[in-house]
UniProtKB/TrEMBL annotation:
AMP binds at T31, R36, E57, L58, V59, G85, F86, P87, R88, Q92, R135, R146. It is found in: Cytoplasm. Monomer. This is Adenylate kinase. Gene3D superfamilies: P-loop containing nucleotide triphosphate hydrolases. The lineage of its organism: Bacteria, Pseudomonadati, Pseudomonadota, Alphaproteobacteria, Hyphomicrobiales. It catalyses: AMP + ATP = 2 ADP. One of its GO terms (biological process) is AMP salvage. Its EC number is 2.7.4.3. GO terms for molecular function: AMP kinase activity; ATP binding. Catalyzes the reversible transfer of the terminal phosphate group between ATP and AMP. Plays an important role in cellular energy homeostasis and in adenine nucleotide metabolism. ATP binds at G10, A11, G12, K13, G14, T15, R127, K174. InterPro entries: Adenylat/UMP-CMP_kin (IPR000850), Adenylat_kinase_CS (IPR033690), P-loop_NTPase (IPR027417). It comes from the Bacteria.
């Protein structure tokens, strides 16, 4: 199964992706985690993206698409994957389409976690306080920037996938277990 989890920062994509990994035996491809790992390891990519991440801006479409394309070729992705944090722009969605076609693969579904944007800031601030590993981008300025970037650049993907009849929406305001149950119901239909 190949899925995209779509939703703003704080919508619960990481939490739900982690659960799907356990229940469906597919891997989670979180571009945010990959980039943070590159920053921590001080790789060439890491050094290049460090400041962009801290500011809450997006890294370039080309860079992130080539990272994802390489990662999908890894053996552990053969049974499927959940994209968490990618695509984030229309250009990335087009590129994903193209690269999957070249690999002779197709997406099964795009699951949108719908949340009340007003409470997102609160959720992410709580995560920042409670998280053992502080993220350099969990500060108020960066959070606001990430929410703005989402609404400008990523939210058009809702329409993009809806027009292709691939979008399935769940109510992300419910409890973790309830959201998980809704996602399972949806996935049993694809
Ligand atoms: P959030 O919790 O804000 O959803 P992520 O962990 O998904 O954050 O991503 C953290 C940061 O990594 C983003 O703010 C951005 O700088 C970078 N990033 C992650 N995925 C992408 C992507 N698909 N395109 C561009 N930049 C990305």
């Amino acid at each position: 199964m190949r899925l995209i989890l779509l939703g703003p920062p704080g919508a619960g994509k990481g939490t739900q992706a982690g659960r799907l990994v356990a229940t469906h035996g597919i891997v989670q491809l979180s571009t945010g985690d990959m980039l943070r790992a590159a920053v921590a390891a001080e790789t060439e990519v890491g050094l290049k993206v460090k400041d962009v991440l801290t500011r809450g801006e997006l890294v370039s479409d080309d860079l992130i698409c080539s990272i994802i394309s390489d990662r999908i070729d890894d053996h552990d992705c053969a049974k499927g994957f959940i994209l968490d944090g990618f695509p984030r722009t229309i250009a990335q969605a087009d590129a994903l389409d193209e690269l999957l076609e070249k690999k002779d693969q197709r997406l099964d579904a795009v699951v949108q976690l719908k949340v009340d944007e007003g409470i997102l800031l609160e959720r992410i601030e709580t995560r920042a306080r409670e998280s053992a590993q502080a993220r350099s981008d969990d500060n108020a300025d960066s959070l606001k920037k990430r929410l703005a970037v989402y609404s400008e650049q990523t939210s058009p993907l809702v329409d993009y996938y809806s027009k292709r009849n691939m979008l399935m929406s769940v109510d992300g305001m419910k409890s973790v277990d309830e959201v998980a149950a809704e996602i399972d119901t949806i996935l049993s239909t694809v």
